[in-house]
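Whiteboard transcription, Tuesday session. T.W. wrote the structure tokens on the left side:
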């Protein structure tokens, strides 16, 4: 069976969930071979093997931390040359998309970004994407070179499947280009204790209807009762009520959680562009004619300040 490379997103050896989802998709189209680079790369092996990686190629070098993405691109390119895979899967993070695009150019291959599903096809993997602000779902495949595909978080389940996961050192040497842009400092974001917005299984978002920064406590309380991330519409962000890093939509982040709860959000096309691929959508809005109700699975017409606290209380009570 053809091997499929999966580029591993990890922090000091702790594998992030979107990579495990990629392993599930990789098993549908071939045998997953994981590529982990940077500090702690070797520590990823047991988790990757536990999710179906037949081999784990690892490389560590100071260049991975000291420079921007090109060293990672060159490591992945070395893996492509060593393995001759039938496809390369990369998580759809900002960094992942840059790595995938640069790799595709270097190996002369076609690229598909932000896939929400992947299946085996007669002429290679077929990726599902959501296009034009999620008005269309497209299916496409790469017709030139080794398909490089980035996949959005929450596009596949995490499936524990034990495989050999044999660790092999990946030989990498860096070109001059790889060390062109040096990282001078890193400032970790202050932790809220909530999951990362693009990776969260549940997202609770607030919009202009929240009517003030202090009122976002109502949204945060619901999010915390569900272990969810908090999102915001651009109107709420532009008003200075919530940070831009939490904006969902065309000019914000694109999320695809199992459950998306929109409170006081009208459902403008630019907001929908960032959340319409969510599996289940719930909206709370006092205007029964709000366009958000056209795309919801469950809608509540009501004042969010009456509905959301009751919902939070009910969830907390049921959790015991
Ligand atoms: P509104 O449209 O004002 O809707 C507020 C809603 O809250 C209304 O439906 C109202 O009925 C309801 N409401 C009010 N009070 C309550 C209450 N007490 N209880 C319940 N419901 C209540 N927008 C984004 O979100 N993300 C983007 O990335 C983005 N990118 C953009 C890019 C471009 C180029 C442009 C032009 C626009 C972009 N926008 C984006 C803006 C977008 O067009 C809308 O203006 C924005 O999404 C509206 O935000 P909203 O739904 O919170 O506010």
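and on the right, the sequence the group agreed on:
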């Amino acid at each position: 069976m053809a091997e499929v490379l999966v580029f591993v997103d990890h922090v000091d050896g702790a594998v992030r969930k979107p990579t495990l989802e990629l392993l599930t998709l990789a098993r549908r189209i071939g045998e997953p071979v994981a590529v982990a680079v940077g500090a702690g790369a070797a520590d990823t092996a047991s988790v990757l093997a536990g999710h179906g990686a037949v081999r784990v190629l690892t490389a560590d070098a100071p260049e991975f931390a000291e420079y921007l993405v090109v060293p990672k691109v060159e490591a992945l390119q070395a893996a492509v040359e060593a393995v001759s895979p039938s496809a390369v899967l990369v998580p759809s993070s900002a960094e992942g998309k840059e790595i995938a695009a640069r790799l595709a150019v270097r190996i002369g291959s076609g690229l598909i970004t932000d896939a929400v599903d992947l299946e085996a096809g007669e002429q290679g993997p077929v990726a599902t994407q959501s296009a034009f602000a999620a008005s269309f779902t497209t299916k496409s495949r790469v017709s030139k070179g080794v398909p490089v595909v980035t996949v959005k978080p929450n596009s596949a389940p995490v499936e524990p499947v034990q495989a050999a996961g044999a660790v092999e050192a990946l030989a990498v040497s860096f070109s001059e280009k790889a060390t062109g842009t040096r990282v001078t400092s890193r400032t970790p974001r202050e932790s809220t204790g909530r999951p990362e917005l693009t990776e969260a299984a549940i997202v609770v978002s607030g919009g202009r209807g929240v009517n003030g920064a202090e009122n976002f406590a109502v949204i945060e309380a619901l999010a915390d009762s569900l272990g969810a991330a908090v999102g915001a519409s651009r109107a709420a962000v532009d008003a200075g009520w919530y940070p831009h890093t939490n904006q969902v939509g065309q000019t914000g982040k694109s999320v695809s959680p199992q459950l998306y709860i929109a409170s006081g959000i009208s459902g403008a096309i630019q907001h929908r562009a960032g959340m319409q691929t969510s599996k289940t959508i719930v909206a709370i809005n006092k205007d029964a004619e709000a366009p958000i109700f056209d795309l919801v699975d469950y809608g509540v017409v009501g004042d969010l300040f009456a509905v959301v606290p009751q919902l939070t209380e009910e969830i907390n009570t049921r959790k015991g």
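Someone added at the bottom: Residues 133 and 273 are 4 Å apart (CA to CA).
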